[in-house]
Amino acid sequence: MKKQQIDTEEIVKQVLSNVTESFDELKQNFDWQLGIDEAGRGPVIGPMLYAACYWPTKYHKLISETCKFVDSKQINEATRDRLFDVLTQLKGKVLTFETRELTAEYLSKNQLAHLTINLNDISHNTAADLIQNAIIKGYKITEIYVDTVGPKQTYRNFLQGKLQELGKVANIVVEEKADSKYANVSAASICAKVTRDYKITQIQQEILPNDSIGSGYPGDPKTKKYLENTNIRFFVFPKYIRFSWQTIKTIINDRDLNIDYKDEQEASKQVQNLKTYFPLQNQAKIYNYKSVTFSNCIL
Question: What are the angstrom distances between the C-alpha of 67 and each of 13, 15, 57?
Fold first, then answer.
């Protein structure tokens, strides 16, 4: 632990000792390059995390060679935590980063909606939002590196279109395994992975404090055991489970539960019918998302 702290301090000191401008000066007067990556695309439990990490192009070589960011999947937890500590200490001094949490509820709602949004489109929209947010904050983003989701050219064209909506132009690189090729994408992957791991720890403590839910991936034996043994009254699984995943659909079918996902149009008709019988002041708050009805279920 002591060695880890010394390494972190030395890396941060080495970077900052070579930076001659204030952060505001860097933000206002220099071109920046941005990398985006995600963590938790495949698990059935917990959120998917997106992250963007960006720094001035002027200091790209200094940051990448000193910090030695790599794809988060290629390093162990201790190393990820150390590098995330480096990022945290450098944030607001020579770089910055931002994360987006896409909860299991959010993913399920969009993928089970009347007008479905698939996971690729959700990913593309989230990446675009991170880029647009950086630009709106005043960063001059001239280079963007993204780990591809779906066809590369389609993804690139989509992001380019979002930039044009803001009247901006940037060099956009969308590639497979960008998290192992570009330092800012590697840094983003570390931000996303460490943040998601923290979220999973919180979920673990809430829903199964005396045992383990595993990694959340469908093939993890601990995750499979948790899902097979869980049956919450009325809702079957807690809100941290992605109901739109085939793993969950299979378990629900195996339990002989008939689930009717009522779409928003049908729910809207039911609300109108209710208004006929109840005065406005007595109406309950109407939530505009999917309702789930369980039948053939012993409650």
Answer: 11, 8, 15
